[in-house]
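Reader question, answered in our methods column.
A reader sent in the components of a multi-part assembly and asked whether the whole thing could be modeled at once rather than chain by chain. We filled in our standard form and ran it. Here is what they sent:
COMPLEX SIZE: two components
ENTRIES:
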Amino acid sequence: MTVKVLSLSSKRATSRRKWFSKVVTPWLFILPILALYLTVVIGPSLAAVYYSMTDWSGIGKAEFIGLKNFQEILRDANYLKALLNNLRWLAIFVTAPFALALIAASMLRGVKKGGMVFRTLLFIPYIIPGVVAASIWRNLVSPRVGIGSVLASWGIPGLDFAFLGSTKTALYTIAFIDNWHFWGYLMVLFLAAMQAIPSDLYDAAKVDGANRWQEFRHVTIPGIRPTLVFMLMMVAVWSFLTFDYIWILTQGGPARSSEVLSTYLYKQAFNRFEAGYASAIGLTMSLFAGMVIGIFVWLRRRGWDI
Amino acid sequence: MKNRFWFNLCSLVVVLSLLATACARQATEEAKPVVEVTEAPVEATQPPAPAEKVSISFYFTPDEGSSSSCWMDNAIVPFNEQSETVFVDGVAQMNSWETTRTALAGGAGPDVVMTPGPSFVYELVQAGQLLALDQFAETYGWKDTFVDWALSLGEVEGKLYSLPAELETLVLYYNKTLFEKNGWQPPKTIDELWALAEKMQAAGVIPFAHSNADWRPANEWHVGEFLNHVAGPEKVYEALTGKRPWTDPDFVKAIELLNEAQQKGWFMGSLEMYYTSPWDDWHNALGKGEAAMNIEGTWSASDINEVYFSEENGGNEWDWIPVPSTSGKAIFDIGIGSTWSINAASKHPEAVAEFFTYLFSPEVQTRLLVECGTAPAPVHLDAEAMVGVDARIARIFEEFGKASDAGDYGYTTWTFWPPKSDVYIYEEIEKVWANEITPLEYLEGLDKLFQEEFKAGEIPPIPKR
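And here is the structure of the entire assembly that came back:
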């Protein structure tokens, strides 16, 4: 009997130890980061949802006003202008840097000697801090001291124009600068993905008489599709959150021609003391980013190989 | 199943803990501060306070040059040396206003609260974060120290909450050498200014050195100047006190004239250059004589004198005149830069008041102007004490003082317009310049927003005429 009780007690202790190591211990490891995440992500997110339904100025008390901020957004022409600029930004960034990165990566894939030098050179802009890169480019596109003025002094006019000062060109100039900074990152990712494609496939394609373009289309693209699609999704999400280059170079001007939702949000919160309204704008930005992710998830569930 | 139970339990505990923390913070927000915000000094510029002295703190943003250290050496260090009871601890913060605001929201923050302007004071007072200063003003005689209209700018709902730290006005700086070379006379009226600008442009000289590339709100300097100097400060006063709409034809004319000047490329040669010329470029253009005039505030007087009219830039001479007006009368628009208040949560408000009395004394303000080129607070300065200040700069403050005593003053937008209207003024004017809206439509939008803020009582105190 005693033996039986001891055995039962020992079994319980063993089971408790197993349960502790399997259930509690992992949680103990996760707990610090979970607490941090809840504090700096979930907590502020929930607070933003609440403040989006208040008239909070950013200082002091907040009064609940229901959905008035969202109704205001629907009437706000400046918001619409900023959203359209975000969509233009999205269109630029899901095309130009991808095209450049794919071309460069597929060219560098076959380079055996000095490949690393090219990769490093093309990747350097990405590791330059945004503030530094923006300041450099602000001078480079200046009509007084920039590339345009040098060309003009050599008798090649046309580029000595204040691209950041025109409502027609400001947004596209900033997009060009941000793209210069960003595309090297995409190139490195695509190159890594391409190097994982078995060389047999390229050999087979060559045997079948495929040219470079056909190789690229029928071997490379399918081979890097998961990376490509994932980055398309991420870039689409980031396009709704872009802020730094625009803020540094034009702060959304001139005449809101380069205003995007994030710069508009910042101005509402910190210049106009409309933190409640800014929270509502922030929620719509999250909604757009969520929609992008939703579309990709939906396509995957529909059987798309992405 | 068991796993799921523990997962749920742990999640619940964490969420409840967070909620409890948040609720505790919320519940005590009005009562008294319970959350101590960690003050992370970037660089402590002062030695620790001696044990017997009461220590009070303020945050400041260190600059790249020497102005903040000069300011500390001429205001804080002498005070700490002479006071037997109070020690002022200046704490450098990379963005002192944002840090102060965040700390105040957490119920903590420095004893001395510096804000970028009176409209920010209003918001802080509404949140109960500032202490009324009326009692201290009475005790220390601040009403005699400051000029007549100055203290009223710090009032919210009839009580004094802030002291204006920096007196600002805009004048027309000009390249005197260039004027003399071309036989141009400094203009007094708007008509004369227009005729002169036409001549300058025809002569290949940029009429106005100005840009908003480094400071987008610089747009409002000219909107404010044109409203006050074309329509007249009386009309602006009436509009600010709700007796006249902003759509008045004289205001429309003012914005039309400003738009005309922009369309003609009078500011830096073109609208595009106006949006992109860096600060140094347009000031150097004035110093070198590529541009002839510059309507700007007193904050630049020292740099114009010492940096931009240098030998390197041709050794030209500069001078200034009041910004021309329709009537030809000299009008100086009143502007206030930063303001100083006492944190409602300060444990030593008396000590702060003692420090303020010292800081805003004419002697210290004169010393700061002489030694550091800092624009003084609107206090009664002793003109004779301004030895060492460039005569032209001293004359600005002298004439400004006389004009304000005589009631010949206007109103700068960042001091007297409520926050939303102020932002509208400098953001939306660019749509007029881009021909997206007309001057009248611009002013209709301003009027709508202003009336909302007027009804909500958010207009800073307007000095009576």
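What stands out: Chain B has 20 helices and 15 strands. Residues 16-168+335-388 of chain B form a domain with the D-Maltodextrin-Binding Protein; domain 2 fold (CATH 3.40.190.10).
Send us your own complexes using the same form.
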